[in-house]
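Appendix B. One record, verbatim.
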Amino acid sequence: MPTIGANVREIRIALRDGAFRVIYIATFKDAVYVLHAFRKTSQKTAFRDLAYARDQLKKLKETRP
């Protein structure tokens, strides 16, 4: 998902209850980091959800050695 950052990926889950998304990054050697998971309530992903994932990625990069 280039709108969030390089190498960021998304898992889309469709259930009877609705649609869900998991945004993650798996390029680090030691772990897969989930940046955000949420329920989709509209066709387009809300700006606040994209912004939250971007902020989490920024924090992750700042805290990793």
